[in-house]
């Protein structure tokens, strides 16, 4: 594990050049004014109101704990990735073995929540990068996906956020991510098309420039995509 000053500088200049803010989750300025416990208290009451409005009897044994369960689930689980304190610490290592080919971490499970309907998005993310001097622990890629998934999301933004974070951590633009996911707002309600899924991609650096690299990546993850 290391903090290479040259890499730090390249990360900083990368951030200045590329982090435009457009891919940021739209948050209010006072998003973290309330503590988690205060948020849970409020949401518990809000969920209670929704259920009462729907006519549910909250004295029923099975329903009594629902407002509390939902409030805790929102704050501590499915939307926990809104809090910057929960951004995973991604340790990097020297690429001592000089591995110069792409590394692919595929079939990373994605559980997210569609911000339009607050229904689940379930799928797989596939990540590739080419080391520019440092390598990242494999599990950190899964952790980065999980962090950005635990927010109200649209798939396109989540895809870009994952790539930007890995570019920052690795100090290289040569990062790619493809996400294939089912949106329950499409599958279980509305148009109710249970079979459709959504594929998004974000290619940085050499992946954007070199078709052969994109093709190699897609071959590794077995997706046939036309360019
Ligand atoms: N681009 C994008 N759209 C999404 C995502 N998740 C859900 N949507 C879409 O957001 C749209 C919201 O459209 P609206 O017309 O406001 O909502 P709606 O009346 O519930 O639409 P229907 O789902 O068609 O019934 C829907 O078409 C959803 O399929 C996403 O991750 N990315
Ligand atoms: Zn939706």
Radius of gyration over all CA atoms, rounded: 20 Å
Number of strands: 7
What percent of residues adopt helix (DSSP H or I)?
Answer: 40-55%
Give the class-level CATH name of the largest domain.
Answer: Alpha Beta
**Main sheet?**
5 strands, mixed
Strand content: 15-25%
Note the gap between the termini: 38 Å
Classify the fold: give the CATH topology of the largest domain.
Answer: GTP Cyclohydrolase I, domain 2
Biggest sheet: strand arrangement: 5-2-3-6-7
Tell me what you see in this structure.
The chain is of the alpha+beta class. The protein has 2 domains: 5-21 and 90-220, GTP Cyclohydrolase I, domain 2 (2-Layer Sandwich), CATH 3.30.1130; 36-82, Orthogonal Bundle (GTP Cyclohydrolase I, Chain A, domain 1), CATH 1.10.286. The protein is 42% helix and 21% strand. It has helices spanning 5-18, 36-53, 61-64, 66-78, 138-149, 155-170, 184-187, 206-209, 211-220, and strands at 92-94, 102-114, 120-130, 134-136, 152-153, 175-183, 198-203. The strands form 2 sheets. Strands 5-2-3-6-7 form a 5-stranded mixed β-sheet, with helices on both faces. A hairpin with a 5-residue loop joins strand 2 and strand 3 (120-130). Helix 5 packs antiparallel against helix 6. The two termini are 38 Å apart. Guanosine-5'-triphosphate binds next to helix 6 and helix 7.
Task: Give the SSE map.
Elements: H1 5-18, H2 36-53, H3 61-64, H4 66-78, E1 92-94, E2 102-114, E3 120-130, E4 134-136, H5 138-149, E5 152-153, H6 155-170, E6 175-183, H7 184-187, E7 198-203, H8 206-209, H9 211-220
Parallel strand pairs: 2-5
Antiparallel strand pairs: 1-4, 2-3, 3-6, 6-7
Helix pairs in contact: 1-6, 2-4, 5-6
Bound molecules: guanosine-5'-triphosphate (GTP) and zinc ion (ZN).
Keywords: GTP-binding, Hydrolase, Metal-binding, Nucleotide-binding, One-carbon metabolism, Zinc
InterPro entries: GTP-CH-I_C/QueF (IPR043133), GTP-CH-I_N (IPR043134), GTP_CycHdrlase_I (IPR001474), GTP_CycHdrlase_I_CS (IPR018234), GTP_CycHdrlase_I_dom (IPR020602)
GO biological process, one term: tetrahydrobiopterin biosynthetic process
């Amino acid at each position: 594990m290391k903090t290479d000053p040259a890499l730090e500088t390249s990360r900083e200049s990368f951030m200045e050049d590329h982090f435009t803010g457009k891919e940021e989750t739209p948050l209010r300025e006072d998003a973290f004014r309330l503590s988690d416990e205060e948020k849970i208290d409020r949401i518990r009451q809000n969920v209670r109101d929704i259920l009462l409005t729907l006519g549910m009897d909250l004295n029923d044994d099975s329903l009594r704990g629902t407002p509390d369960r939902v409030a805790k689930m929102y704050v501590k689980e499915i939307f926990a990735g809104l809090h910057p304190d929960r951004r995973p610490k991604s340790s990097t290592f020297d690429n001592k073995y000089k591995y110069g080919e792409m590394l692919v971490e595929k079939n990373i499970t994605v559980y997210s929540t569609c911000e339009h309907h607050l229904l689940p998005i379930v799928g797989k993310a596939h990540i590739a990068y080419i080391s520019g001097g440092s390598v990242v622990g494999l599990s950190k890629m899964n952790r980065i996906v999980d962090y950005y998934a635990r927010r109200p999301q649209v798939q396109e933004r989540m895809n870009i956020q994952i790539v930007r974070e890995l570019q920052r951590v690795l100090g290289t633009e040569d990062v790619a991510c493809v996400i294939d996911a089912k949106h329950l707002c499409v599958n279980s309600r509305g148009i109710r098309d249970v079979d459709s899924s959504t594929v998004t991609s974000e290619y940085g650096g050499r992946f954007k420039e070199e078709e052969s690299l994109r093709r190699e990546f897609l071959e590794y993850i077995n997706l046939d995509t036309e360019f």
